[in-house]
Amino acid sequence: MLLSSSPQDEVNAAYAEKILVDLSAAFDHTFSMRQEKIGEKALAAYGESLTDKVVDACLDCGAVFACDAGSQGVQELYDALNLPMQVRSFCVPEVLCDRHEKPVNLYVGSVFSMDDDTLRPAVRSAFTLAQEMDVRLCHCAPAGKSQADWAAAVRVQETAFPQVSANAMTAAEAIRGMIASPERMGLLLCPPYAGSIMLAAGTALCTHPNIIHDFAFDDSIGVYAPVLPPDVDDVSPFATALAVAKLLRCSLHLSKEAACLEAALSNVIVGGWETKEDGGALSGMDVVELIGEQIATAGELMTRSGIA
Questions:
Q1: Is pLDDT above 90 for 111?
Q2: Sign of the C-alpha dihedral, residues 305, 241, 131, 183?
Q3: Whole domain around residue 270: which residue ranges?
């Protein structure tokens, strides 16, 4: 499912669709895609930013790609689908890390509510993501009466996911850790009030705004969306590609295809190909075409069981 809220979003939807078509050709898949309106486009067409028809269509899909995380209707969609938490993916530059050979991915997960029906699935989703991405899980327990519920929810998942390294910390310790050693943070899970603070800290640390993306998922459905940086008209194809990779990995469970897309994107970035918004000479679709060429090359070498 591809959701767009403005004419600019249609361009981003075209990026995502092209990437999925290239992956389907390389790995012999068939992705069934449909596009619906939310936000401004839905208001203009239906008088409301999120319709029951769109919610039902999302529930019938394996995953949802929303073309801009900040568009009106996306937060409503999270609520309508009863998703337990929102995760924002940052890339922290290597100069802030102890290991200097590559940047570090940092994830901040914010639980939508401390209600028991939301907290438990949120913690389960966090452990699932930490295992899927092979990262450490750090978590900031809330203060007050919710602290015991948080600790109990974490204990249940520590038993279910013994291979996930979970580390409890205070909000102050988390902020210091994000600054001093972001490579050790992995996924930082926060209660609602701390989530906004950690998101702001991650944004301040991140010097790659064109690859920030959000996602929210549970066992049945996930919503994935690139984040539009301030004062920028078009979402970057780099953020789109990474959001699609998360969709493939976390909702469709196509880890090899996700890794292929991430490698293709890395090759394009290392090759110095940049969009006009990044100071280069290429359009967003030019970059997507280059990513597709890299995917096709990998597809010639890979089969479903590994390297041919």
A1: yes
A2: positive
A3: 1-81+221-308
CATH of the domain at 140: 3.40.718.10
Pick the residue with more confidence: 21 or 9?
21
Residue 281 has pLDDT above 60, yes or no: yes
Ordered DSSP codes for 265-306: HHHHHHTT--BGGGTSSB-HHHHHHHHHHHHHHHHHHEETTE
Chain centroid to CA 36: how far?
Answer: 20
Question: Phi, psi at residue 258, to the nearest 5°?
Answer: -65, -45
DSSP label at residue 211:
G
Same structural domain, 24 and 101: no
Confidence of residue 95 (pLDDT cuts 50, 70, 90): low
Same domain for 260 and 175 = no
Last residue of a domain, one of 214, 248, 276: 214
Residues 163 and 295: their CA atoms lie apart, in Å, by: 31
Cα distances (Å, whole numbers) of residue 19 to 136, 183, 291? 29, 29, 8
On whether both 6 and 33 belong to a single domain, the answer is: yes
Amino acid at 192: P
Provide the residue type at 102 as one letter. Answer: K
pLDDT of 196 above 50 = yes
Q: What's the domain count of the chain?
A: 2
pLDDT at 307: 41
Asked if pLDDT for residue 88 goes beyond 90, the answer is yes
Residue 86 is encoded by which pair of tokens? 């929102």
| Helix and strand totals (H; E) in the chain | 11, 12
Residues 153 and 208 in one domain: yes
Cα distance between residue 112 and residue 219, in whole Å: 16
- How far is residue 90's CA from residue 211's CA, in Å, rounded to a whole number? 7
Give Cα 265 distance to the centre of its chain.
15
Same domain, 237 and 118: no
Q: Is the pLDDT of residue 305 over 50?
A: no
One-letter amino acid of 254: L
